[in-house]
Design a protein that fits this description.
This protein has 219 residues and is of the alpha+beta class. It is built from five helices and six strands.
Length: 219
């Protein structure tokens, strides 16, 4: 009877694993079997079957921690590369950089210095000044736009990080209701780890998990 109940629970756990195959943050569950105490009959001890010690998660804290660190590193480098590429495209090309404007300006200055009374050289000098001013304004406007995008992105990410922090606080509150003598619900632990993983996409985290499985986070 105990073996039948054990395998009923095991089949139920397998069914739950299949049903949650594509659920975000879900960790595969496992039933842990434990041998019942044997009984003495005559001169021999006879086995009395087995029972379940409970459901546990197939979870690797070391691997999960490494994934969080990798997420943080990628999130740190991605915008740096993105905006650096935009700055290179803006300032490092012949079409967009100030180099062409300065070259034309200094060339016009040299020509005008050699013959200040030449009308063509004067017009070229004025044209070079206007070209350099227009190019400077254009680059300044582009840099301001990039700055506004960065500020908007940072604000949006902080808002999302705050929402995740509030959700993590609620999960910690539910975990705190679980007695230390009991196993925390696997679903709550999955939620906690999923929230920490999502938070790692926005910031580098220093995560500490206490004996009640509650997580405290330092950014």
């Amino acid at each position: 009877a105990s073996a039948t109940e054990l395998y009923r629970q095991a089949l139920s756990t397998v069914s739950n694993n299949i049903a949650n195959l594509n659920s975000d943050g879900y960790s595969r569950h496992e039933i842990t079997a434990q041998e019942n105490n044997p009984v003495l009959q005559g001169v021999s001890y006879l086995g009395t079957g087995s029972n379940s010690k409970g459901v546990s998660r197939a979870f690797d804290e070391f691997a999960t921690s490494n994934i969080r660190v990798a997420n943080s590193k990628v999130s740190e480098q991605k915008p740096l590369i993105q905006y650096t590429d935009r700055l290179i495209d803006l300032l490092g090309t012949e079409k967009g950089s100030l180099s062409a404007g300065f070259n034309r300006f200094y060339s016009a200055v040299a020509q005008l210095s050699s013959n200040p009374t030449e009308e063509a050289f004067r017009q070229e000098f004025l044209g070079a000044i206007e070209f350099l001013a227009d190019r400077s304004k254009s680059i300044g406007a582009e840099l301001e736009q990039i700055n506004l995008e960065i500020e908007s992105t940072i604000s949006s990410e902080f808002d999302e990080l705050n929402k995740l922090s509030e959700s993590l606080a609620l999960v910690n509150k539910e975990l705190a209701k679980t007695s230390l003598s009991k196993r925390p619900p696997p679903a709550l632990l999955d939620q906690r780890d999923f929230l920490l993983l999502e938070m790692s996409k926005y910031a580098a985290l220093d995560v500490d998990v206490d004996s009640s499985d509650r997580a405290s986070v330092k950014l």
